[in-house]
Amino acid sequence: MGGRREAIERELKKLRAEREELDGRIRLLESQLEAGPAGFNGAAAGKGVGDDACGGSGACQSRVGNEFAPDGSLPADMIYRYSRHLLLPDFGVEGQRKLSQSSILVVGAGGLGSPLALYLAACGVGNFLLRC
Description:
ThiF_NAD_FAD-bd; three-stranded mixed sheet; FAD/NAD(P)-binding domain; mainly alpha
């Protein structure tokens, strides 16, 4: 019985430490959200892909508003939009920054290409070129 009790106590200690870490990350994100701009920018404000972005050429390239603040923190709209990414221990703010600065080429907009383009845009890829 004593060994089981010690195992449970170790597990509780580990979980409390994880909770404290998550609480700290939540406080950090909330402070960034409060310090960020009041409104949404970028694609949420109507910027990004224009009506003539594809130009009828079959290739569409866009740059959506994924700019970081001068101090390297995320704007409030990005924190809100990508909050699930930011909470992942292996991803976080740095992973979102790298993703928003990346470029991806998608060839084809068929059964796989069109959902792929949707998911890439939704997860915050900085630039992607779609060749139909």
